[in-house]
Amino acid sequence: MKYIDYYKILGIGKTATESEIKKAYRKLARKYHPDVNPGNKEAEKKFKEINEANEVLSNSENRKKYDKYGKDWKHADEFEKARQQQGQYQQYHYGNGQQQSYGSFTEEDFSDFFSSMFGGGFRSQAHSRTQFKGQDYHAELQLNLTDVLKSEKQTLTIGDKKIRLTIPAGIENGQEIKIKDYGQSVGEGGINGDLYIKFNIVNNTNFKRKGNDLYLSLDLDLYKAILGGEIVIPTIDGKKVKLKVKPETQNNIKVKLKGKGMPIYKKEEQFGDLYITYNIRMPKNLSAKEKALFTELSKLR
Asked: pTM, whole model, 2 decimals?
C-alpha cells in the first residue's frame, strides 16, 4: 500500500491546528461534493480522498499514529477492524525486525481504513456521515437611527432571491441577525447555508446612543437656571415634552426622563431612558442697567 499524504490532500502543513484542518476540509468538501459535480468521477474520487484525510487528521489519536508511522499507522485497532469487517485484508505482523504483509490493495481502495469506516458503500454511508452544508451568505444593511424606532418590514434582494423580513425596533449598530436556510442552496441530502445580515446604524440625530439609553446636552439660560421654570425639549421620535427646571439648577446637572430612550430590541413597548445634561448659558452683551443689577446682586451675596 502506497503512502498517502493527507496533509497535502487538504493543502495544510503538519503543524496545522484542529481549526485549520476543519476549515480546509469544509472548503474542499464544498468544492468537490458530488451534488455540486454530478457525474464527475474525478471530483467524486477527490471527495473520497478529502473525507479520508479528514477522518484521520481530525481525530487526535489517529493523527498521532499517522504522524509517527506514516502508511503503517493502522497497525493497531483500525487495521484489525478493517480485516474483521471486510474479510479481504489480513493483519500486518512485525517480528524480529522483519515486516510481512498479506493481501493486496489497489489505488481505487484508497486505504483499508477508509473502506472499513464505510463498509465499502461510500455513496450510501459516507453521505450519512458527512452531510454537506451550503455556504453562508453575508450582507450589510445601512439604516438611520430614526429608522429603527419602530419595527419595519423590508424586502431585500440577495442574489436572485427576494427576502421579506421584519427588522425589529431597537436593533443596534454592528448587530448581526441570522436568517436560516437563505444561504447557498445545495439541494437534496444537504443543508442550505444561512444568511447573516449586519446592520450599520447611522446616527442622524443630535442624541447620543448608549445601548437603549439616549443622551442630549441642552443649553439653559442663566435666569431659568437660577429662578427655575418650564422648558420644552424634543424627543427622538419628534414629540415635544415639557420639563420643569428646579430653581438654582447647577451647570452639568443631569436629569432622567424615564422611558424616553430607544425601544428595547425584541421587547414590545419597553424603552430605555433619556438623559438631559444642562449647559448653563451665560448672558452676553449686558446693558449698563443689567451690569448695575448684577453688581447689586453681588453685594447682597
From this structure: 0.54
Q: How confident is the model at residue 71 (pLDDT cuts 50, 70, 90)?
A: low
Write down all domains in the chain, each with its CATH number in brackets. Answer: 6-129 (1.10.287.110), 137-202 (2.60.260.20), 208-300 (2.60.260.20)
CB-CB neighbours of 226 under 10 Å = 14
Q: Which residues contact 248 (CB under 8 A, 6 or more apart)?
A: 225, 226, 228
Cell of 164: 421579506
Question: Could you read off the pLDDT of 181-195 as tens digits, one per residue?
Answer: 888 877 677 788 889
From residue 19, how far is each of 8, 26, 46, 54, 91 by CA, in Å? 17, 11, 21, 12, 34
Distance CA 8, CA 66 (A): 14
Could you tell me if 218 and 233 are in contact, meaning their C-beta atoms sit under 8 angstroms apart?
A: yes
> 174 in the Ramachandran plot: left (φ > 0), alpha (ψ -120 to 50) or beta?
left
